[in-house]
Write a structure and sequence with these properties.
Elements (H helix, E strand, L loop, with lengths): L6 E4 L11 H10 L4 H10 L1 H5 L5 H11 L6 H14 L7 H10 L3 E6 L3 H7 L10 E4 H4 L6 H11 L6 E5 L2 H9 L3 E4 L3 H11 L10
Parallel strand pairs: 1-2, 1-4, 2-3, 4-5
Helix pairs in contact: 1-2, 1-5, 4-5, 5-7
Length: 211
């Protein structure tokens, strides 16, 4: 039997947005004078604390610089914050419009994302970002997925039960954590595969998801 959800909760990065462009990742790596692979490692090493708001932007980038055996001037930190925020601001080709279509059709929609303050402030100003009934960012609550509490924060603000929700995320650990508290979940790899899974399991139109 197909699930008939009343709400859809979307992850942001790699679901509503594209992955960070390689050119912008390389620019940040070059500013720290490290290879792209080394930059990727140290970029994510401190990211959970940054996403949770436990690290201020300057402290995060100083930690990254120290791990790269570099020292950053304040102007460089400001530039890195700008590039990093911009790198997460490019819309995915289909998912944002599908989120708009769902909300227009009467479904409640929510955004649930691990995101530091500067990226959040940049992203919410993007004109392409759909309107959501609820936006839940890790930096506002000091909690990151896959901690169950952040899912409950989102659910409570939606005023809805886990069994009434479809949750879409690109990370396996986040999906498994969501399922443990009763959310109906689909892992996002690309629009075509997600549309097939959603169409098979849920009573939702995926027409706009497969244009």
């Amino acid at each position: 039997m197909r699930v008939n959800p009343k709400a859809v909760i979307f992850d942001y990065g790699n679901v509503l947005s594209q992955d960070q462009p390689l050119a912008e990742q390389q620019t940040m790596a070059s500013m720290l004078d490290v290879s792209l692979s080394e930059f990727t490692d140290i970029y994510w090493r401190f990211r959970v604390e940054y996403d949770a708001g436990a690290l201020e932007p300057g402290a995060y980038w100083n930690n990254v610089a120290t791990a790269a055996s570099r020292t950053l001037a304040s102007v460089q930190i400001s530039e890195l914050i700008e590039i990093d925020s911009r790198s997460w601001s490019y819309p995915a080709p289909l998912t944002p419009q599908w989120a708009r279509d769902l909300r227009a059709a009467g479904f409640r929609t929510a955004l649930l994302s691990n995101m530091p303050v500067p990226v959040r402030d940049y992203v919410v100003r993007c004109p392409w970002l759909p309107c959501f009934d609820v936006q839940t960012f890790s930096c506002d609550f000091g909690i990151c997925k896959p901690d169950p509490e952040i899912y409950w924060q989102c659910l409570n603000r939606l005023a809805i039960q886990p069994s009434e929700v479809l949750f879409i995320d690109d990370r396996e650990s986040n999906i498994r954590a969501a399922e443990k508290i009763g959310l109906n979940s689909v892992i996002f790899t690309n629009p075509a595969e997600a549309a097939l899974e959603i169409g098979r399991r849920f009573s939702l139109s995926v027409t706009g998801f497969t244009r």
